[in-house]
Amino acid sequence: MWDKDGKIWMDGQFVDWRDAKIHVLTHTLHYGMGVFEGIRCYEADQGPAIFRLGEHVERLFKSALILGMEMPYSRDVISQVCQDVIKLNGLKSGYIRPLMYYGAESMGINPAPLKTHGMVAAWAWGAYLGEEGMEKGIRIKTSSYTRHHPNVVMTRAKAVGNYPNSILAKSEALRCGYDEALLLDTEGYVAEGSGENLFLVQGQTLKTPPLDSALNGITRNTVMTIAAEMGLKVVEQRFPRDEVLVSDEAFFTGTAAEVTPIRELDDRQIGPGHAGPVTKEVQKRFFDIVHGRDPKHMGWLTPVI
Ligand code: PMP
User: Were 186 and a residue from 5, 46, 149, 205 both cysteine, which residue would form a disulfide, CB within 3.0 to 4.6 Å?
Assistant: First the structure.
């Protein structure tokens, strides 16, 4: 067990980290039906602040709606718990993980007898793809695994069962000596990373795949706003993987990955082979926003007091 001091919220109560346990017949453990979020809290100049909490909670509820899971808690309760879990664990910054899952009330595919349960944990977490990657850019590999078709599992939901696909792709990429995977959709067009959305820089345009097979990333949406403020045009359009190679720059976005430059795809250098000027500017503006240094976007921060 990943042993730690601290408290985790489970179904209305804060319990010790070590006692936050579930039964082995927990339905989600067997069949993967569950929804979750990944949220970051940053040490802003004004104190700890959760970035775009409202949007993350909304996506959690939409994910549950898509999967037909009844939510036993209100948006307000989940929002409050996300703040409390930071406070109670004495974190100045960190990663917040709410998960809604089916319990051990019954086995079998039919979810009717099952109850939805909830947990929220938080812990300190640095740069997901490494400090060096953040600075110099990462190396990625086109995955041999295809991203989900929207009619296999509905990709608009951040569903537990979507992630074996990500884990297979990520571990294949790491095993082959790369930092991250690039997954293509069922028709062979670029979809996203194992836990990130992708952007290409082409002159004054940012290009990103549409949401057919990619998650509706909140960082993706943030970067689109930043791009508009930088006077860049944003295009959501399908593209094949060779378009990544001929772009000026490329970067991944995600709550964990933040804004991570990509320097190579399949051993071929992209643009300058390190973080390019547009990526660096987007990254700088992103970190200014999350640290409360951009007065235009203070509304995206929920102070933890
Ligand atoms: N795609 C996938 C598959 C993800 O898991 C994530 C992380 N939630 C993202 C994209 C990025 O989404 P966000 O910016 O909301 O974290």
Answer: 149
Question: What six digits make up the tokens of 158?
Answer: 């951040």
- Dump pLDDT digits (tens) for 84-140: 999 999 999 999 999 999 999 999 999 999 999 999 999 998 878 888 899 899 999
Domain tally for the chain?
A: 2
The pTM of this model reads 0.97
60 lines ligand 1 (CB under 6 A): no
Q: What distance in angstroms lies between residue 22's CA and the mean position of ligand 1's atoms?
A: 26
Please confirm, yes or no, whether 7 is among the known catalytic residues: no
DSSP codes of every residue in 236-258: E----THHHHTSSEEEEEETTTE
97 found inside a domain? yes
Q: Which domain holds residue 160?
A: 131-291
Identify whether residues 137 and 285 lie together within a single domain: yes
